[in-house]
Write a structure and sequence with these properties.
The chain is an alpha/beta fold. It has 18 helices and twelve strands. Helix 1 links the parallel strand 1 and strand 2.
C-alpha cells in the first residue's frame, strides 16, 4: 500500500479520560477524535485491543485472544443509553463489587475489572430478559458472522472461569479438545457462554460506532499486530496445530530475542509458530487473524517484523535467552499469500533492533514503511539513520513510542554533549524540546509522522507507558481530565499544515 504524506497521534484507549477508572469507547474516545480532527491529524494509533489478564500485568501484548475485544474498554454509559443498564446500576451498593472512587492519573486494573464485570453481567441478564426481537436478531447475526473465532473464545473464557486457571492445567479431555467433553461443557456452561458472546457483541457494536464517528471526521485507526500470542489464550487452545507444542500441550520452544551488546536478551515466553503446518494450510489461521484485524482498523503496525523473516526460538526448558537459535520463517511466501487473499496490505512495520539484509529484503519487497525513532540516534554521528533529517520517505517517523520514554524524559537523560549535538541537528535550543522534535519529525521525508499524547503535553518520564523487560507498573498511565482543552490542537494543526501532512 502506498501511503499519502500524513500524521497522527498515539494514545492507547485505556489512557483516555473517562468516568469508570479507565479509558473506554464512550465520550472520552469521541472527545479525542474531535481533538485529532481539530489538530488536522489523519491517524489515531493504539496498542492491541484484546482482553488482558492480570497475571500478565494487563499487557495488551499478552491477551486471551487475538480476535476478541477487551471488556474493560466497553463504555458503561453507552449501555445506559441503550437501556441495558440504569443510572442506579453504576452506583456501588454497600458490600458490592468495585469502587467508583477510582484513582486519578492511572488505571487500577483489578478494581476496574471487578466494577465493570459486575455491571456487564447485570447488562447481559437484563438484555436476555427484556430484549425485543430486533435486538436478539442483532446478537444472533453477530454470532453467525464471527462464529469462526467467537465459538471457541466464548467457550475458552467459560472454561477458564470454571477451572480457575490456564488451559494447560485443565482436565486432559478438555485440554485435548475431545469432542464429547466439549459438547458436555457447552451444554453445562451455556449461560456463561451466552454472557461472553453478549460482551463481544457490545464491544463490536461500540467499536464500529466509534470507527464510524472517526471516519466522518477524517480520522483513521492504526491498530497493532503482535507477532506472537499468549500461551494461555483461546488461540493456542483452539488451534494447537498452528504452534510448536509438545504432545503434552506445552511449548517446545518460546519466543524472545538474543543478547545484544549491553544486554542479556529477552525471553518472552510466547509459543512460537509451527510454520511448516501453517504453510500446508495456506496460513489459514493467520488469514483469519488478519482479516479480523483489518475489519476493525484501517492500518496495522506489525510488531517485531523480524519474526516473519527469521525468529529466535528458545528451548522451553531454559530461562536463558542465549540458549536460543535463529530459525527461518516463510516471510516472502507468507506475505505473497496474504496479499493474494486479502489484497492491498495496509501495514507499517516495527523493524528496530535486528536489522539485517533478510529483513530489509522482505520489508522492501512489499513496500512496508519502517519505523524511525529519535531515541536510538547518536546525535553526534553524521548520517545517523535515527536522526529525523535522515528519515527516508518509506518510513514512519516517531517522536517516541509506547515502549520508549517520553521525549522530555529521554532528552533529560542525554549527556550534555549529546544534547548539544541534538540542538545543532534539529535547530533547537532545548526549550520546548517536545515541540522542537515534533517539528523535526513532521519536517522529515518520512511519509507518516507520529507523536504521542505525552509528547504533545510535554510530559516527563513519569508519564511513560511501558518499560520493556519489566513485569509491573506498565500500561496504567492516563491522560489528565483537561488534556484536550488547551491550544495544543491548534499548534499541532499549524505544524501539520506547514509540513503538508494532511
Amino acid at each position: 500500500m502506498r501511503f499519502d504524506r500524513r500524521a497522527g497521534v498515539f494514545c492507547h484507549l485505556t489512557s483516555l479520560p473517562g468516568p469508570h477508572g479507565i479509558g473506554d469507547l464512550g465520550s472520552g474516545a469521541r472527545a479525542f477524535v474531535d481533538w485529532l480532527a481539530a489538530a488536522e491529524q489523519s491517524y489515531w494509533q493504539f496498542c492491541p485491543i484484546g482482553p488482558t489478564a492480570s497475571v500478565h500485568g494487563d499487557s495488551p501484548y499478552q491477551s486471551y485472544s487475538a480476535f476478541a475485544g477487551s471488556p474493560l474498554l466497553i463504555s458503561l454509559d453507552r449501555l445506559v443509553d441503550h437501556g441495558y443498564l440504569g443510572e442506579g446500576d453504576l452506583r456501588v451498593p454497600e458490600g458490592g463489587a468495585g469502587d467508583p472512587d477510582f484513582p486519578e492519573g492511572h488505571v487500577d486494573y483489578d478494581r476496574v475489572r471487578a466494577y465493570k464485570t459486575d455491571r456487564l453481567r447485570t447488562a447481559a441478564e437484563r438484555f436476555y430478559a427484556t430484549a425485543d426481537g430486533d435486538a436478539r436478531a442483532a446478537v444472533e447475526a453477530f454470532r453467525e458472522r464471527e462464529s469462526a473465532w467467537l465459538d471457541d473464545y466464548a467457550l475458552f473464557r467459560s472454561l477458564r472461569t470454571r477451572y480457575n486457571g490456564a488451559w494447560t492445567e485443565w482436565p486432559e479431555s478438555v485440554r485435548a479438545r475431545d469432542p464429547d467433553a466439549l459438547a458436555t461443557h457447552r451444554e453445562e456452561l451455556a449461560e456463561e457462554i451466552r454472557y461472553r458472546e453478549f460482551v463481544q457483541f457490545v464491544f463490536d457494536r461500540q467499536w464500529r460506532a466509534l470507527a464510524e464517528y472517526a471516519a466522518e471526521r477524517g480520522v483513521e485507526f492504526v491498530g497493532d499486530l503482535p507477532i506472537y500470542v499468549a500461551l494461555d489464550s483461546a488461540d493456542v487452545w483452539a488451534s494447537p496445530e498452528a504452534f510448536d507444542l509438545t504432545p503434552e500441550h506445552e511449548p517446545a520452544a518460546v519466543a524472545g530475542v538474543p543478547p545484544n551488546p549491553g544486554d542479556d536478551g529477552q525471553r518472552w515466553g510466547n509459543p512460537v509458530y509451527d510454520w511448516g503446518t501453517l504453510r500446508e494450510t495456506g496460513y489459514e489461521w493467520w488469514l483469519d487473524r488478519l482479516d479480523r484485524l483489518l475489519d476493525l482498523v484501517d492500518v496495522a503496525r506489525i510488531d517485531h517484523f523480524k519474526g516473519f523473516d527469521e525468529y529466535w526460538a528458545i528451548p522451553a526448558g531454559t530461562d536463558d535467552p542465549a540458549a536460543g537459535e535463529w530459525r527461518e520463517a516463510p516471510g516472502h511466501d507468507f506475505f505473497e499469500t496474504v496479499e493474494a487473499e486479502l489484497g492491498t496490505l495496509p501495514f507499517v512495520v516495527e523493524d528496530l533492533g535486528f536489522i539485517d539484509q533478510g529483513l530489509v529484503d522482505l520489508r522492501d519487497r512489499f513496500g512496508f514503511p519502517s519505523m524511525r525513532v529519535p531515541h536510538y540516534a547518536d546525535w553526534c554521528r553524521e548520517g545517523d539513520m535515527y536522526q529525523p533529517m535522515h528519515y527516508p520517505e518509506a518510513s514512519v517517523g516517531y517522536t517516541s513510542t509506547h515502549d520508549t520514554n517520553t521525549l522530555v524524559g529521554y532528552y533529560g537523560s542525554l549527556p550534555e554533549h549529546q544534547q548539544d549535538c541534538l540542538h545543532y541537528n534539529i535547530g533547537a535550543d532545548g526549550s520546548d524540546i517536545n515541540w522542537s522534535m515534533i517539528e523535526a519529525v513532521w519536517r522529515s521525508d518520512a511519509v507518516l509522522a507520529f507523536t504521542t499524547v505525552q509528547d504533545v503535553l510535554g510530559l516527563g518520564g513519569e508519564a511513560r507507558f511501558n518499560r520493556p523487560g519489566t513485569a509491573t507498573g506498565n500500561w496504567t498511565w492516563r491522560c489528565p481530565e483537561d488534556a484536550f482543552r488547551g491550544d495544543d490542537a491548534q499548534r499541532l494543526a499549524r505544524v501539520t499544515d506547514e509540513h503538508v501532512r494532511n
